Amino acid sequence: MMTMAAPSETFWTALGSVAAALGVLATLYVGWLAWRTAVPRRKVRWEAEVKPLLQGVGHGILTVSHSGATLSRPHVLELKLTNAGNRDLEASHFGGQPIEFTSTAAFVDVLAQSSSPSSQRVIPVAISGTRLILTPGTLHRRQTVTYTALVDGADPAVDAVASLSNGDFHRRRAASADQSERRQQIAVAIMGLVTAVVAVAVQALTDR
C-alpha cells in the first residue's frame, strides 16, 4: 500500500514566501491604480492625415473649384484631437487660448466635424488663412473630435499648438521604440516572476 508523505516544512516555507511576494505585488499594483485615478493627468494627442484630391489625374483633365475659385493643389485634411488624460479639460486649462492647427497649405473650408462619443459637443472651429482655430471649450475625458477640411497647396505639412497648463500636448504617432522597449521589459519581468515561482515550488516538492 502506497502512502503520501505530508508536505515538508520547506514546502510550506517556500509557499508562504511565494504568497507573500505575490501579496506585495498585488498591493503595489492596487496602489498604482489608485494613484493613477486620484492624480489628474492632462494629456492631449492629435493626428493629421492628408489626402490629395487629384492624385494620379493629369492637369487640365479634372479641376476642383470652391465658391467659383479653382483650386490648384486641393487636398483633404483630416484632423483629430483626443483627450487621452483622466479628467475633462476646460478652457481654463488652455489658459483661455485657442488650439491651433497650422498648415503650409491654405484652409479653404471645413467639410465635416464630428465627436466620438457622438453625444459630446464638438469644439467650435474657424479657419483663417493657414490656420484652423478651435475655440476654447470642454474636451471630455477620452473624447475625440475630428475635423475634415479642404486645403489648397502642394504637399501640406501640418502642426498644432496649444497652451495646455501642466499637461502633455503632442502628436500621436506609431508606437515608439521606447514604448516597445518598456512593454518588452514588463513582459520579461512577468515571465521572470512566473519562472521564479515555478522554480521555488518545484524545488520545495523535490525537497519533500
Compact overview of the structure:
This protein has 208 residues and is an alpha+beta fold. The protein has helices spanning 9-38, 177-206; strands at residues 42-52, 64-66, 69-71, 74-83, 99-103, 106-116, 125-128, 131-134, 144-152, 158-161, 167-171.
Protein model, in words:
The protein is of the alpha+beta class. The protein is 29% helix and 33% strand. It is built from two helices and eleven strands. It has helices spanning 9-38, 177-206, and strands at residues 42-52, 64-66, 69-71, 74-83, 99-103, 106-116, 125-128, 131-134, 144-152, 158-161, 167-171. A five-stranded mixed sheet has the order 6-9-4-1-11, with no helix packed on it. A four-stranded antiparallel sheet has the order 7-8-5-10, with no helix packed on it. It has a two-stranded antiparallel sheet with strand order 2-3. A hairpin with a 2-residue loop joins strand 2 (64-66) and strand 3 (69-71). Helix 1 (9-38) packs antiparallel against helix 2.
Keyword list:
alpha+beta, elongated, five-stranded mixed sheet, 208 residues
Helix content: 25-40%
Backbone structural class: alpha+beta
Number of helices: 2
* Molecular shape: elongated
The spatial strand order of the largest sheet comes to 6-9-4-1-11
The biggest beta sheet is recorded as:
5 strands, mixed
Low-confidence stretches: none
Total beta strand runs: 11
Distance between the termini: 19 Å
Beta-strand percent range? 25-35%
Report the average pLDDT across residues: 79
Provide the succession of SSEs.
Answer: HEEEEEEEEEEEH
| Overall radius of gyration | 28 Å
